[in-house]
Amino acid sequence: MARPVLVVQHQDSCPPALVGAWLTEAGVALRVCRPYAGETLPDDLTAYRGLLVLGGHMGANDDATVPWLAATKELIRAGADEHVPTLGICLGHQLAAVALGGVVAPDPAGKTVGIHTVAWREAASTDPLVCGTVGAGTPAVLWNNDTVVGMPAGAVDLARTPQGRLQAARFAPTVWGVQWHPEADADVVAEWARRDRGSAAARGLDVDAALEDVRARDPELRRAWRPLAERFAALCAQRRSVPPPNRR
User: Fold this and answer.
1) What would the pLDDT profile of 126-148 be if each residue is shown by its tens digit?
2) Nearest to 236 by CA among 70, 84, 106
3) Which residue of the set 82, 90, 93, 116 is catalytic?
4) CATH number of the domain residue 178 falls in
5) Annotated catalytic, 90?
6) Distance from the Cα of residue 229 to its chain's centroid
7) pTM for the full model?
8) Of the listed 14, 82, 183, 236, which one is catalytic?
9) Residue 248 located in a structural domain
10) Residue 63 is part of which domain span?
11) Exposed (0-12), middle (13-18) or buried (19+): which is 149, by Cβ within 10 Å?
């Protein structure tokens, strides 16, 4: 039986959702670990052929109050050192950046919600993961307070917002992060909108309008991001042996 992909889920409202379904449809078995519910993260990735780290309301630097973040960063470093395909989404993207030497901070522009445009960089067209998703004006669901403000040494910039905020990067040869939420369908976003309605309104953000936009553009979003999950599945399938550790 093929080794599964380890999925680190940080809270109930941030499940693997669409990405999990697409990976399963591509023949990838998933082992979802929920450390917030008392489940213990593995010590290493020997038993896994990939690592998927999902989003969450906590910050990438909140190790003192979220005890499993340090272990998650260690798994991301193992993904880099042992050539395990690794994908971080939103918080996972930020954790990957910090784990490998980057810097995450509150976005100076404030909280971002709703569908925004991914502006691809030149390197994206040949990147092993995102090359199949590159297109003009690709829509993406964003829902974040923090952003990567400093990239790890050697990282490759793959996408930014039109305003210049980092949206995707290859942080190491087999470690990627995306700030947006390819996994989020309208049901997932509805819970985020419910939770953030009061605080967002105080900042002048209309989360209900953002939710309706996600509902209306659901087919477009699925077309845009299914290829990302399928490419990640293919990269995980190619990992048939475990290289010797090359720990930092």
Assistant:
1) 999 999 888 767 899 999 999 99
2) 84
3) 90
4) 3.40.50.880
5) yes
6) 11
7) 0.94
8) 183
9) no
10) 5-238
11) middle
